[in-house]
Amino acid sequence: MSGNPTVRALSDGAPWLVRLSDAQAHSWVADEPASNGGAGAGPTPHELLLSALGACTSMTVRMYAARKGWTLERVEVQLRFNPAAASAGTSALIERRITLHGTLDGEQRARLLDIANKCPIHRELTGGLRITSSLL
Which of 45, 75, 59, 74 is nearest to 122 (CA)? Predict the structure, then answer.
């Protein structure tokens, strides 16, 4: 969770398959399921968005618990994108359910939920993120 991350997305072959890469030489793909004309070779763009939030939530909560010396053995984050929850003037909804495994009291659990809501991706998604686009 540092620096200014960059990702390259390249779509040049299969109908919806996109090859993604970052500056650290990681690579992955995105695709649509066969029901949408893709090959199902990777997660959909919405699933990638949810995975970013889930990963950030888990990492942030674990980092905080470790710094406090709390016994947090595992974090599970289940996410669901719900565009049907949008109504006039509101956005779609992401439902996030966090399960904390470890020896934690109620106060620690409440603090970790508060920390989850402060993970960088959560803050970006809820804080008026701007996107600029240009053609090269």
Answer: 59
